[in-house]
Design brief:
alpha/beta; four-stranded mixed beta sheet
């Protein structure tokens, strides 16, 4: 078994696709519209299944925002340099909510950014990872 994708409901699909592709460097892998049931799906990622986990963005016609609730945590993305990734996110108009620095009680360098729907994305510094977020 393995994780295939994670789904997030978004209020503005083009805006969210732009964030994940232009700010975080993902690729739009495929998109499908289902007017009969009033929703559109977009799958994004750094590669396709089965080699990579994908992010599914779901837009339900007419719904512009969602209550995130207290159970949602974050999505995590590995980056080679968290500070450089934060600078790139800011340069592209993205919101950094926690600058790069060690995690409390540990040495791992992390940062947090927020997507246009207020979902949190943790950037975890892992030397040797390919940098998807570029300046």
């Amino acid at each position: 078994m393995r994780i295939l994708h994670t789904m997030l409901r978004v209020g503005n699909l083009p805006r969210s696709i732009a964030f994940y592709t232009e700010v975080l460097g993902m690729k739009l892998l495929r998109q499908s519209d289902n007017p009969e049931y009033k929703y559109t799906l977009a799958f994004l990622g750094y590669g396709s299944n089965p080699e990579h986990t994908e992010l599914e963005l779901t837009y339900n016609y007419g719904v512009e925002s969602y209550e995130l609730g207290s159970a949602y945590g974050h999505i995590a993305i590995a980056v080679p340099d968290a500070a450089l990734a934060c600078a790139a996110v800011k340069a592209k108009g993205g919101k950094v909510t926690r600058e790069a620095g060690p995690v409390k009680g540990g040495n791992t360098v992390i940062a947090f950014v927020e997507d246009p729907d207020s979902y949190k994305i943790e950037l975890i510094e892992r030397k040797g990872e390919q940098q998807a977020v570029t300046l």
